[in-house]
């Protein structure tokens, strides 16, 4: 459902799109944290492969969310986004000469 919501939200960073991104981010993080609880009812059988598939789908959802955020320009991925952290260098020059 999260992937469908992200696909339908478009690529412009409006207020509703940002709210959808926030909802999807909290939902995906919640799915990661509840991974063990989801398979708690099936402790009697080996569900390692299903658990790995569940985590893989969560990772795919997170990757698509980050790709979508990057396409909107909400992730700092270019060098211009970090320009405030570049230390300013003061160059002191002295010039001497004669003008005619």
Automatic annotation (TrEMBL):
UniProt keyword Lipid biosynthesis, yes or no: no
Annotated Pfam families: EMC4
Keywords from the UniProt entry: Endoplasmic reticulum, Membrane, Transmembrane, Transmembrane helix
Keyword Metal-binding listed: no
Gene Ontology CC annotation, any one: endoplasmic reticulum membrane
Signal sequence range: none
Membrane disposition: Multi-pass membrane protein
Transmembrane segments: 20-39, 51-69
Protein family: Belongs to the EMC4 family.
Location within or outside the cell: Endoplasmic reticulum membrane
Protein name, per record: ER membrane protein complex subunit 4
């Amino acid at each position: 459902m999260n992937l469908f919501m992200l696909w339908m939200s478009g690529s412009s960073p409006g207020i509703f799109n940002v709210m959808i991104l926030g909802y999807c981010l909290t939902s995906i993080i919640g799915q990661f944290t509840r991974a063990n609880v989801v398979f708690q009812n099936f402790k009697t059988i080996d569900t390692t492969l299903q658990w790995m598939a569940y985590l893989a789908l969560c990772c795919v959802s997170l990757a698509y969310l980050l790709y979508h955020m990057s396409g909107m320009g909400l992730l700092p991925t270019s060098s211009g986004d970090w320009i405030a952290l570049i230390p300013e260098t003061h160059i002191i020059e002295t010039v001497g000469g004669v003008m005619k």
